[in-house]
Amino acid sequence: MATADTPTSSQSPAAKSGGPDTPAFRYTAQLAGTIETAWQAKWEKLGTFVQPNPGDANFDASRPKFYCLDMFPYPSGVGLHVGHPEGYTATDIICRYMRMTGCNVLHPMGFDAFGLPAEQHAIRTGQHPATFTRGTIDNFRRQLKRFGFCYDWSREFATIDPEYYKWTQWIFIKIYNAWYDETARGSVGSARAINELVDELQSGKRPAKLNPDAAEFSAEEKEVDHGDFNALSYSQQRRIIDSYRLAYIGMQTVNWCPKLGTALANEEVIDGRSERGSFPVFRKPMRQWMFRITAYAQRLLDDLDTLDWPSSTIAMQSSWIGRSEGAEIDFALAQSHPSMPAHLRVYTTRPDTVFGATYMVVAPEHPLVASMLDRPAPGADIDAIRAYVDEARNRSDVERQENKKKTGVFLGINATNPATGQQIPVWCADYVLMGYGHGAIMAVPAHDDRDYAFAEKFGLPIRDVVYPPLQAAMAYYCAHASDEERIGSWRVTLADFLGLTTSMGTRPEWYGEALNTVRSRRSHTGDESERKPPEDKNAPQRNPRGAIQATMLETIQSMGAATFDEFHDLILGGAVSARAGIAYTGPGLAVNSASDRVSINFLPTKDAKQKIVDHFESRNVGRKKINFKLRDWLFSRQRYWGEPFPIVFDEDGNHHAIGEATLPLELPSMDDYAPAESEDPSPLLAKATDWLHTTAGNAGVAGLPADAHVTREANTMPGWAGSCWYYLRYIDPKNHDTMVDAARESYWMGKGQRLDATNRPDNRGAGGGVDLYMGGAEHAVLHLLYARFWHKILFDLGHVSTTEPMSRLYHQGMILSFAYMRKDKSLVPIDEVEETSPDTFIEKATGEPVTQTIAKMSKSLRNVINPDDVIAEYGADTFRLYEMYMGPLDQSKPWNPRDIVGCFRFLQRVWRVCVDENTGDLRTAEKPDNDIERVLHKTIAKVGSDIEKISFNTAIAAMIEFVNACKPGQDDSAGILTASQMERFMQILAPFAPHIAEEVWAKLGFDDCVSCASWPEFDKSMLVEDQIELAVQVNGKVRCRISVPADATEDQVKEVALCDDAVIKAMDGKEIRKLIVVPKRLVNIVV
Fold first, then answer.
1. For residue 638, what are the contacts with CB-CB under 8 A and spacing of at least 6?
2. What average pLDDT does the chain have?
3. Does residue 918 contact residue 16 with C-beta atoms inside 8 Å?
């Protein structure tokens, strides 16, 4: 990569204001700061980056649109660090470029401001979260503006603005009053208004049953048909209707910390204690608002194929959604009392292994466990069950999945395997989660690692029912071996049979023919096991199949069976996995899988699955099922600093949406934000009793008497709420009457200008939405998945025009920092380390050597770098250039203060090329230098192409090469570039270093800003080299480089090479044996 001709060093560049002999107009940090703040003020005064909307004055509908969005920041108290501006600088370059190429560019900024940190600050200081957060927003805005980013600040908002979260609450009401109809839109499925569901229930078009996909009800409850919907009571009708709502209330087991007074995420719990404070945490069922995101699982998965997103992010979302195809199977239970479930329903992706299910496991939260605790089965150890369940419930799902030590307790009841008819025991174990499938599994220890470990610990049967082809062929042989083959030479016969079936890829239905072939061969050649080996050990075996046979004999021997009968029992008894000490989890052929009713023996896995499921469906004990790992979205928080739910409850406990005319429902003012320490969870807003209790009339609830007492929902929405739709509000942020104007939404979310379109010919990302969304990969799953979910609902209900919110996504890499590591791998804060000599470091306190390494910036390591300090020392333009020049944008790289100097000196060189440091006037040449003109055209082409490819480091390298080519002549005071050349160079420099470009542009006499100029054109003919340089090798060593015309013939190239003095000397009069010209690369001479 090119560098400025002043080398990078750790020495500071020119002082901020320079020394006493410093020219008055030298580009110093002080001058950079003066230029930058002046232009930032001018841009703001002129409204340079304010983008009109369709329908506004000065809107140009003829220009293509480009909507570019940064993931908006959470305004923390410490302000920006140097990692934040990386993505912001990248989008700023792109937006400036797209504006110069003729696009209407929407590039807004705002703040995601609800969240726990502000509430914790309020608890510590007594300062209201709003006061604290407004202060942090002011600081963030100040820092962002100091970079000179081309945001349209007229569109700014924060998610804490009541006028903003009014529409967050409005969207919640729309989701609450919607259900998902899987038959709509040609069976693609779509959200519909809840009153349309009521019409179908009242007309009898839809049976009066609970939503079959509602996770909050048991399978038995969902199967009940309640008959005539119109004859049901109001509460019964509401129960059915609410089971379909896309926003519903469900009981969810959460990590409750009484000391902190809140539910914690799984990641915040370590060994049963809170990560913060190490307080005890308990698993506790709580009433929570949920979103039925699972209804959209298939669409969320399918539409990933339409997006121009990083493949890693698509893979993560796909894995998170986790589609699998399998079957539900019902295992009948031996009921000990009528209230106990009649059967256990399981979901499995391997129904072909059902013959190997030797026990069952239910999650501690399964209804069967509660039933057993209420009325235990005879012989059940109720104390052991209760103790185990209590302990298991206090462990997070993550801990339960990661724990390698298997634990469990027998429930004292048996289930009937529907394939074998055998009774198998039912256990309770915490490695089964209630949130997946039905909270119960059929355990097949021979073919599942976790089941194997559990069975091994508790002495439960392990029975093989799937073998890979080799072992399946062994099973066939064992079942069909003749009496003669069971003695003597059975191993050799089996080895030949295995060799034939595996080498030929024999299908199971042809095993019989293959075995007959082996028997026929052996009848003609005799017993090969009795042959004497040749005397010459190196002589080839007489048997052409000897090598395969020897390999198979070794395989048989490794099975550890001394006799045929032992081998027979091992294979047909399904004991291979048990003896090997490991489960076989791959596909293969079914074995030991037959009963009086059905046999799937020797069927490949795919066919075996199909046949056994068909059999279960015919008996009504199983069915095909598509399942997803994705769980419904828990949407409640027991916090203060979040959006209030627009929901009230009547005196019968029924929930109702408040009237849209009463929005926004604002947070009440509170003095006490501290959670009460309690084992009974209570939201903080429950303390605001005057706000909590109101009437239906005040809440705008239709269908209730105006004076009816209602209670507001006291939970608040999570931080995800405001970030799910903010990209839409930027389009029309001042609209008081609707979330977003339809015409404006249709324009800005329609198909826009694509970056690097010629090199991205496929249709990914061509369906409309935000044209470029940039942010960290840490948001690859949850934020992006939730935003897609909300957007699809809004699309279904007719509020937006596209099916996806973000057509193209780009993740910038992380900006890391240096850290120091002890021998034990622990890290030392940087201010506790001393550099004793270049690249040699010791820990000050101990004198022990430490190693410099790369780590994330953190307050604990004291290696967080404040961009304010960097800008004060070098200026914002230098900061911007350095972060873009560090390396490819999508890769992580360390911040190195030694390297930033090179970028500053590059800008000093740019300034000197253009401006006289003594007078401040331009230094322009009268006539263009042809070589410089050619390099400039190449640079314009290269920089434009690299911006399109988001390859900013190479674009900067090209500009550095151009400046390095601008060598002064004999008269150093004379200009190097003509005004025209200077103008075009400022146009391509402007996206990267806009302030210095604006200053030079103004000196060139332009009234308008360079930010409003067009992108310069280049002459393609100027990109072709007149002369090319070739290396000349003699006997493999480069002896010289020659310059020849680009269109020189091969003979002309040879002539120039052979006339070079260095070549003549290297050849030393010897005969040329070979002379090869590699076009445009080298000449190779062999003498």
1. 261, 262, 263, 675, 681, 682, 683, 684, 715, 716
2. 91
3. no
